[in-house]
From TrEMBL:
This is IS3 family transposase. The lineage of its organism: Bacteria, Pseudomonadati, Bacteroidota, Flavobacteriia, Flavobacteriales. One of its GO terms (molecular function) is nucleic acid binding. It comes from the Bacteria. Residues 118-280 form the Integrase catalytic domain.
Amino acid sequence: MKHDYSRLGIGVLCRLFGKTRHAYYDALWRKENSLVREDIILQQVIAVRNDLPRIGTRKLHYLLQSSLESHKIKIGRDYLFDLLSEHKLLVRQRKRKAVTTNSRHWMRKYSNLIRDMSVIRPEQVWVSDITYIRLINQWGYLSLITDAYSRKIIGYCFRNDLMAEGCIEALEMALKNRMYHEPIIHHSDRGSQYCSHQYVNLLHKNAIGISMTENGDPYENALAERVNGIIKTEFNLHGSQLGFEQTYNQIKKSIKVYNEIRPHSSCDYLTPNQAHLQSENLKKRWKNYNKKFSHEKTAV
């Protein structure tokens, strides 16, 4: 007679620990089910990060909800943090600071018109800034114009110099993309590009108010700098091993994904395109977190 010693051994162990064989196999099933569940979650994470490679865990948790519901899976934010930490998938923010602003020039500088202003509608305030991207043998400079209400990037230009023409091209794109015809205030730092006659004249021609930072405090243009950081950090654009034209195509694709897919916790988790169509105060859903995952605590 042939004996199944593996089953016999399991039965002995179960009796030894006061458990039934059914309880043993039930525990195995739960463990296997948990592994399958984790694999589904990680597959969905990878799918989202194909488009948003460095999106933070809180926004990732929000984006995963609908896809995981189709698998009848519900997860909490802390569980997702722990799972990504275990698999080394948490995003760690780079700390860097570079100067692209020259405010020591003779051209006229304007006052800060948006200090303490409540932004309550799209195209009420546009914020502008320039950031740099390291290429193989040169630098590229990205000029962005962002709507302060919706966080939508409405104008951009990528050039290999810091001349005012790049900012002007971004502004011309923003004007073409304008959807409303109410008064706008344009806010920037005091860089020579934004104070140039061509740039100022284009703003005046379109009846746009001019506002600038006053004290060299980066927080006076924090939103514009934050959007710069999102584009570079979450879309892996701090540096590029591609040529200039290929990098420009990558930037265009990244801005399209940013506007159409990435939710903003400061805009009630709407995408910039969705928020730009709203006409009421948007609920801010971000908080200041002081937890073990503080490297992902900044929310926009």
